[in-house]
Amino acid sequence: MSPSLDVLVTRVATHLIGADAPTAPSAYRAGLRDLRDWFGVDTVFLRHHDSHHRITTLVAEWPQREHVPDPDPLGIVEFAGADPVFAATEHLQEPLVFRPGSPARAYAERVESASGMSSVSMVAVPLRSGPATTGVLGLVAAGDRQWTEDELGALKATASLFSQVQARVSAEERLRWAARHDALTGLLNRRGMADELSARLAEGRPRFAVLYFDLDRLEALNDVLGHTAGDEFLRTVAERLRRFTDDDSLLCRWGGDEFVLLLPRATTEDEAYVEACGLLMSVTARVELAGDVVSRTASIGVAVARPGIDTVDSVIAGADQAAIAAKSAGGNAVSLFTDEIRERTALRNDIELHLRAAIENDALLLHFQPEIDLTTGRITAVEALVRWLHPTRGMIPPADFVGIAESVNLATELGRWVLNEACRTYASWRQRLGESTITLRVNVSPAQLVSRDFIGVVETTLARHAMSPADLCIEITEVAVVHDVTLAARTLAAVRALGVRVAIDDFGTGYSSLSHLKTLPVDAVKIDREFVAHLDTDADDRAIVGAVVTLATAYRLDLIAEGLETVEARTALLDLGCTRAQGYLYARPEPAEVVFDMLRVGTLTPS
Fold first, then answer.
1. What's the pLDDT band for 103 if we cut at 50, 70, 90?
2. Is residue 357 included in any domain, yes or no?
């Protein structure tokens, strides 16, 4: 290659060396302009091949045509059925020279229809990446034009520069695609959908619906058929979801078995609900996998997004919470995001964010509810019940935050605080009252029961407040032991070895209640309020309570009824042989000082 041609290659290289995806088009044009000026041809073009779809696309030309036909015969050309010249470039390895008078009439007619040039000569130089031909650099001159070996060598070097930029841009595009798309399904991933949602939530944009789609029990399919079959099932679901939109930017795989679908034309809850029901029927249809025909139900949550008001997080959270509501109702259902769910979600988020600080800063408090001997009115025990005096929401009952504490791994810390505060209060009562036979009952969560330091915490807390172990009774629900009865029995045996008593709370609402009485080391059972509330009018409840009384007597266990609210229920309990209870008939849960005054009297009467 002559020194002057080296100058040309260097000049083109200066345009291309720093090119990336955004700047590549202008760099291509600058390089093509230099080639056109140097060789004095009429036009220079650059084409990229798509081997998967077997097409070649015009990506740059110089000079740019002023009048481009629509469709452009030179824009996208399919190799299948193409004229001999275009067909030859699909796997071209060396420069191809085309001169006037060659038999490639179809190619000449294509060029004439696109540019008006009727008699041309051309050289096509392949862009190569390893063994593959990835495109072609072409120079076209009106009339005849001969090419020397040095010129062809310079063009091959220049084509190599263009192919390097093509490879770099292709790699950037693959990385950019991977950053926004899910590798398994090809759908947008969470980041890609968040970008799309953010643009659509700009003020002034129209309302639209968001569907949060959650497959029910996909893990069971993975366990039985394997993760390969599970992945194939997810791909099938993705394809079915694609039928509901002609725009992939509206569809996303949000998580493992969760998808998000935008419905731009559904602007009301009713419209979105109808769409979601159709979606549910489609994606839960049977699928053949690994020789088996399987299906999964689904839960779909629907939220209508309000541009200018909602955020990406709030819209997704709303649809997600609605999907959780659908799943909680049994699954295979559609649920709308309502004001009730919005308020419940806001409360949950508030609790998750601030409960730890409330525990650490002693922002919680305890109320206590007395337990009564129905025959004498004597107070036999008090149950510690935690409350949260929230700075803006007021008094929050335990039902609103104890379950959340368990779900965010705060149950052990909360339980430790309750145990310590209850024992501290009990010790202060005893110091003021003197000797007493009152038992302190403290509820223990499932997570707290199986924590490694539970026994040590109980022992240390008793010692700290100089309490006798016999004065303390921990209460557990059947749910706390159902998942691992053996471990629970071992822990409870260690508790009793300290001298602390154990009671099963909410008895009758768990699983295998009778077997628990036999296998768990317990001292008392508390009959759930569900069986006590209508004891005087419901024969079934009377039969259940009667059976529990018989069992407790047989196992020599103390028996306490919860939720006693009427004189008639009290009479029924006494008739059945249950002599101890707690409930609003005698006292509601009250602050420590109020309960202290009750303990000083020692008895309560029905009110």
1. very low
2. no
